[in-house]
Amino acid sequence: MPTNDRVTVVIATANRVSQLCETLERLLRLPESPPVVVVDNRSADGSPEQVGRLFPAVRVLALPSNEGAGARTIGARAAATPYVAFCDDDSWWDPGALTVAADRLDSDDELGLVAAKVLVGGAETLDPVSQLMGTGVLDERFRPNPAGPRGVTGFLACGAVVRRSAFLAVGGFEPCLGIGGEEELVALDLAGAGWKLVYEPDAVVRHHPSPRRDIWGRHRRLACNHLLTAGLRYSPRTLCHRATSLLKDPGRGGAAWWGVADALGSAPWVLAHRRKVDCALEAVFAPGAPPATPAPAPSVGRGTGAMGEKGLSALIGGPVRDLGCRHERRSR
Questions:
Q1: Beta-strand (E) ranges in the chain?
Q2: pLDDT tens for residues 12-24?
Q3: Domains and CATH numbers, the chain
């Protein structure tokens, strides 16, 4: 099957029309000729109109509100191919990379996600996350096997291809996490549903980060989502370990402290949506947390894991109330 019948490229964007147009020019020159869907997070710079005028072959979905990373999920729903490749408005796939990823997915019906090798900037520096994935010691089922296929516990959303049915079945990206560290939750949910996640170094993505990035705000978002993901899926032990680590190292300008505060403000929402993964999966995805006690506390309350609703309510210092998504959704 031709690659353009197998893979759709989905881009979530907001207020970066110049970078977006440069990326689209590169994508539309690919030999695979993939269909491209741009999901615009309520840009104020005329992005949807300009893309529609300059690139009539590109499907544009202009959202009435900023859905953050959830825009990618909306784009995946609009795709008609079995696989969806994500890239940002400042990243693009190399010629042949989509074919490599699609072939890998075709070869294994249990494979849910292929993480690409990401090269950063004009110097083509290997992204630190890609470097870690390339030297991993886990196989596709998260068993120690340094010589085997590289199983991964995360990915970079600017360079990944998912099996559309698997991705949508686990809910895709959570809109309330915005953009910045939103990948861990998707990886956890795919793995928890039994899907394999692998690193494929022959599928290459180029990433030229936009100079318009709010670095301090991004670090704040990363810290917040680091805790929110732990609250949504991990034990209170791992959540406390992550919070302590962030408080000890607040980062430049105290960004991590602000992120912790944001996460605490969203605690009622976390409690309402909490669905803990099993201990074996947590041990693989969050290996830095201290070991569990031999006799975990019994479950109290639906969907809140071992500590239960009362225990987590005590931790945040108040009653459980579903306040929805407190923090602002941003595309960067």
A1: 7-13, 36-40, 59-62, 83-87, 91-93, 111-120, 125-126, 160-163, 196-207
A2: 999 999 999 999 9
A3: 3-207 (3.90.550.10), 215-316 (no CATH)
